[in-house]
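Morning. Coffee machine broken again, so started the prediction first thing and wrote up yesterday's gels while waiting. Chain of 426 residues, entered below exactly as on the submission form.
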Amino acid sequence: MKVMQAADFVLKRDEEDVYAEQREAALAILAEVKASGDAAVIAYTEQFDGAALDDLRIPADAYEAAYEQVTPEFLDALRAAILNIRRYHEAQKRTSLLLPDADGNLLGQIIRPLQRVGVYVPGGRAAYPSSVMMNVIPAQVAGVPEIVLVTPPDREGKIDPNVLVTIRELGITEAYRIGGAQAVGALAYGTETIRPVDKITGPGNIYVALAKQAVFGQVAIDMIAGPSEVLVIADESADPDYVAADMLSQAEHDPLAAAICVTPCADLAVRVANALVEQLEQLPRREIAEASIRNYGAIVVTKSLDEAVELSNRIAPEHLELMTEDALSLVGRIENAGAIFVGKYSSEPVGDYFAGPNHTLPTSGTARFSSPLGVDDFIKKSSLICYSKDALLKNGHHVIALAEAEGLTAHANAIRVRLEKEREVR
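Came back before lunch.
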């Protein structure tokens, strides 16, 4: 398989499925939620989740009950992860800037947090307390005063206890047991119970992704997340069991997930393939992982490590693992990746749950121009221009010349009026 052919194989994954039917359904749900508010959200929750709700909000007593259902080991791990993730994101904080100059001008940039953010936490095949942490913590660090969380319930209207405990540990006080496109609509348009937000973050299924895409403009969104991806660049020093295990850690997410190993070592490629077969036998989610590996998995043998890096940069994977003899030396050559995991002990799940960097990453090749979720996603910036009289008298003719070049005579006149009046005063 040639390098570019391998890249095209992965990049065309999203082109193979046309979501016209799902998009039409998501748009219909959004329209109904916009028109009917809570009634539509309740009806769709019963239709899609099987839960008959009399109140959208997660009951207050559910949180205390959840603490009785989680293990001490989970609680210890959760609290340690929260500390790591918060410490990492604290380092991303920005401050406003002011730039005075010799002409008496004051230019600057004012940074403020968004006022109200909606966090979508997926449910369905699995529960994701990690998604709670990765979306809520950077918003808190940014200083967002109102964070509202939504997550789909089970058929009894209940939420996974691990998710509930995570919500409580982070101090979120506004959380609703709704999911799907109807939850996106509630956050974007508001209902009798839920006030609209300024931005929606968090991953979901195809209906959630299409609904987020549709409401963009009404509200901001983080990204349109596609199926998960991992690409492992490995040489002869790599352990095939480690490579296979990390490939499967992404494959178990979704039948559309892509797990790829790129190596210049043909012998390693064979050993990784064998390890995949052996480890698949042990996975409870084997059916999902097997479909992913069969349809979108690949082991690519390249002529050299340079060619492996070239292929990776073209694919721009969500997760990139470097399992080579001198892995750190490759980092400077990686141009496109959502997150880079360096060395055989930097397994992708370490980043998913615990290390600190955010696990909400660009997918489907968008790491060419997009970044991981972070504190910057929860702030807005205002430019500040405080121009002095002396500076306007000195530079006003430049502004007039540029405005007239664009044919905007009223722009030019706004400056000319001031220049003439101020010079008369002098």
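The first helix runs from residue 3 to 11. Going to sketch it on the whiteboard this afternoon.
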